[in-house]
């Protein structure tokens, strides 16, 4: 069983930055691809970005490209989401997720169903 705990959310003004962290309680952390998703009020949960096991591959939603950066530290069992130039439309609960079935021969998952484990989420609110 994988437990994921997000932190780092909060209230920030438009144009500001936040760094989210997600710590995993699993010995085999480096064997999982990891992703960040978000869910705004009244909307479906959507993909933000993902990173491969060794951090060598990443993929971003168009809304995140150029502003967000995903990274991981396998020694610390932690994945990060650096968010810059935040906009009010980035307001959402942000979730990290782990994909144990990822293989380097396939594309990183961008759909909810490809991830088996989820954190409880952390709220990000961007004021205008």
Quick summary of this structure?
Helices cover 0% and strands 46% of the residues.
- The fraction of residues assigned to DSSP E strands is over 45%
Number of distinct helices: 0
Gyration radius, rounded: 14 Å
In whole angstroms, the N-to-C terminal distance is 40 Å
Mean pLDDT across every amino acid position: 96
The rough form would be described as globular
Order of helices and strands: EEEEEEEEEEE
Content-based structural category:
mainly beta
Largest sheet: 7 strands, mixed
Total number of beta strands:
11
Which ranges are low-confidence, i.e. pLDDT below 50, for 5 or more consecutive residues? none
**Fraction of residues in helix:** under 10%
Structural summary, described in words:
It is a single chain. The protein is mainly β and 128 residues long. Helices cover 0% and strands 46% of the residues. It has strands at 4-7, 10-13, 18-24, 33-39, 46-51, 58-60, 68-73, 78-83, 92-99, 117-118, 122-127. The strands form two sheets. Strands 2, 4, 5, 6, 9, 10 and 11 form a seven-stranded mixed β-sheet that branches. A four-stranded antiparallel β-sheet has the order 1-3-8-7, with no helix packed on it. It is globular, with a radius of gyration of 14 Å.
